Structure formats: structure tokens, C-alpha cells
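Figure-free illustration: sequence to structure, shown twice.
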Amino acid sequence: MTRRRRIEVPSYPDIEEAVGYNPARFLKTRSRDGLEKHGGDTTELHLAICVIRGIDDLGTINAWIQVERDLFDGGRDHVMKLLEHRREIILDRLRDEQAQEREKASERGRSSSSRRESPEQAERESGRTVAADGGALDEPVCPDCTSAVEAETVDEQRGWWCPECTSFVRPLEVSDGA
């Protein structure tokens, strides 16, 4: 049995430091297209394809794209399509997460503004007792996470600040002089 010579893999120290490994180890192949089998059942790129399908970080996929382009004069079409497809999946997921965060923030804003307008509604929803003038009679709690809140002035408005979830709920007036 003849042993094949090892493939010389270029080093990318900055990428290796950022990602934790060198993507060139997976992308560099003996054949130009990486689709030859060399006596095995799978192509040279089989492991690289499996790793690419598991990438879920934008920085990591961008590093792979950079290495592929560098190794193969702009990249092999079939590998670039796979990398770009994975990048789009990651970007879609990030967009969805950002939209969900904006929606949650918007819901918190709506619920906070409705509490500002109606101390009685805030009392029912948060479970704390609210005085007729909007001040708390007992220990105030955050309506979003039920943690203890602190009296605070933000933009010249007195209200309750939650150090846990960073919500600011402004009652009509803070009656305890805090």
C-alpha cells in the first residue's frame, strides 16, 4: 500500500484564534474540485460539508468563506454556494431573533404605558397594592419580572426602575417621597 503525501495546509492564525480551528484543514483538497473519492466511499469535501451544515455563527461562516476564496482564487462555485446558503440561513435566524426581541420590547413598552395610564390596572396585573394617587402602599415589584423595584428619576420623570430586567414603569406619582 502506498502512502499519499500529506496536503500542505496554509495557516490562518487570526482566523484560527477567532474560530478555534483552521477551516483550511477541511477545505484544502488534493483535487481542484474536492469531489474525488481517492479510494474511499465519500468525497474529499464530505467532512467539510458536514461541518458547514453545523455552523451557526456568522463570524465562523464568514471565516470559512474568506479561507475558501483565498485557497481557490475566489472559491469553487459549488463550495461557495454551500457556504453562502449556510450564511443566509444564519442571517435569517438572526433577523428572526432581532424581530422577536423588538416585539418583546414593544410589548413591554405597551404594557408599561398602559400601567402608567391606569394605576388600578397595574395593581391587578402586578399584584401589588397601589394607592389612589398611584403610589405604592406595599413593596413595589416589577410588572414584567416581579423583582423588587427602586424609585428612580429618568428624564425628569419619577418612576420605578427594575435592576433585574431594566424596565422603567412610571406611575402617576410616587407617594412615599422616595
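We now fold a second protein in the same way, so the two outputs can be compared directly.
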Amino acid sequence: MPLIGLLIPVDSYGDIVLTFTYVVILMSVGQLGQNRTILRFEGIKFATFETSSAIALLSSIIIAGIAVKILEIHSLVIFAVVFIVYLNLLYSKCRVDNNIVAFSILKLSYPILKLLSFFALMFFADLNLSIGYVIAEIFSSFISVLVGIRFIKFKKAFNKIEVPLFMKFGIPVFFQTILLHVIQYGDKIFVSSYFGKIVLANYFFVSIFCTCVVFLFSYFSQKYEVIIYRAKNWNEAKRRTTNYLIKCLMSGFAFFPIALLSYLIAVQVNGDYDINYRLMLLMYASSLLGAFTNSYFYLIGYLNKNSLIIKYSLFLCLLYVTFIFTGVEQLGIYVMPAANIFATLVSLIVFSRLITTLRQK
């Protein structure tokens, strides 16, 4: 996304950011929490990957189809969402199997193919750039899926007996995803409608360099999430979660100078964007807090109390939205990251007490 932003006009970039936001939200919601179900039950329950895949693909088709009608976006988005959902399930399967080679190949091939195919369409096809982006998503995710399934050993079975269990585990994650995406991606829609697409392009351009730290967190999540879920006791789960959190924070602080320097260079390369240090600092701090939220979710997953995730996410979302609508006139574009920081800190303090209470019972 940063490279795309450097090579196209700011207003066109704003359109692509909005399309990207819709695709990511629909993909995350459409998989119905089955990516996490695979991490939790694969190898424990029979045919987890196959059963979860069937649930996720069916739900993603339905949810994306409804969204296309309601939001009046291009129907090609459905294909993009379905292929990306299955690719995400393959990521989870590789993580459970500890197949580092396959995971690395998929993680690298997908964004590289997306970038190359988008640029090819941009330079050689007379297409609307937003449609070109969706086609690039379809092509890159489809090819990556074809590559990924070569690494998977399928059981060639669908275990309908496990569907209620997987739905019970996945539905709270589904609602958690909806509520958290109000924060993670809803801000782009709000900025577009409240401030306009040019401001959205600048806002998203800053956020790219701040949220890059999340990829570091993803590396540690790949290593720790599964072993936290499968810890033998609470103390072991808590110790592993603490190790995850420490490594995320240390790498996050170390990465900040790189993120800042990359942002400054990118702004100099494309003079259409403005340098905004305050927004950069607020967004980066907001991204760092994501490691604390992940830690909380992993411990809740270990306790098998996923209903608490919904309560946490709802509480967080309500605080976030309230802060925005009461502070947008005073804080302007800075209100979104400030709201996220405030809501996350308050929610973590309140719900950490609930975990303590659960452990005492």
C-alpha cells in the first residue's frame, strides 16, 4: 500500500483505501472466527481444518454478498473476500503444523503478487484503479491459495458433529471482529465521510508506517498463540503470554525509528502528502497497545471464556465511539488514535480484574 500511494494521485489513493477497508472488514468478519478455531482445535478434534473451512467459506459468501447489495460495491469483491478467507485459514493451518516454510512462502507471495498485478493493470489496462485493486486481490489470493494447498495434507472429511463446537467458539470471535473493526478500520470510513478522501489518503498513508509494527507482533503471535492455548496450567499460560508481550514491546520500541524514517522519506518522494508528527506518534502508540489486547484475548482463549471477549470488545467499542463523537470538534483528525488509546487502556484495566476474578472461582 505505501508503494501504491507513492505512484498515484492522492484522491485516487483515497478511493483505493476505502475499497481496501471494505475487503479487509468483509474478509475478517466473513471467516466467522474459524481461523482462530483452527488454532485452538486442529490436531485435537477430527477434521478441524476441513470443517472450519466449510463454515468460513459459506459464511463469507453470504456476508460479502449481502454487503455488495447494501453498500453498492462491485460484485468482484465477493471473489476477493472468499479467496482471502481461505488463504487466512491456510495461514492458521501452517501455524498449527509449524510449517514455517509454507507459511513464509504464502506470506511473501500474496503481497508481492498483489503489488505486481496491480501495477500491471495500472500501466497496461484502462481500468478504474479501485476495480484494478480488487482484481489484483483476486489474482494474488487465488494463486497463493493454489500454492498453499500443495503444502496441506487434507483428511478429505467434513465432521458435522463438530460444527456446533466450532460455531460456539467462532461466534464470539465473529462479534469481537465486528466490534474491533469499528476501531481498526471504521476510522477510515469515518475520515472519508467527515473529512473527505484527500484527508483519508493522508491519514491512511501515516497509518501504514505505524501499523507495520503489527507485522512484528504477528511473527510473535505465530510462535506463541498456539502454545498459550495448549499450556498445561494457568501459570504456564500466563508466563508464555508475558514472554509474548515483552518481545512485542521490545521489538515495537526498536522499530519506531525505522518507521519514522521510512515515513519521512516517503513523504519527500511524493510531495502530495504532508508530514504530521503528532498523528504519527499517536498512531504508533495506538498500535503498540494492540500487543496488550492480543495478550488478553489469548488468556481468555486459554480459559475457554470467549463470551468475555464480546463483552470486552463491546465495552471498548462504546468507549471509542463516545470519545470520537464528543471530541472530534476539539481534536479533529487526531481524535481516532486518541480515542483508541483511551478506550484500550480503560478496557484493559477493567477487564484484567475480571480475569483475576475468574481465576479465584
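Summary for the second example: The first helix runs from residue 2 to 7.
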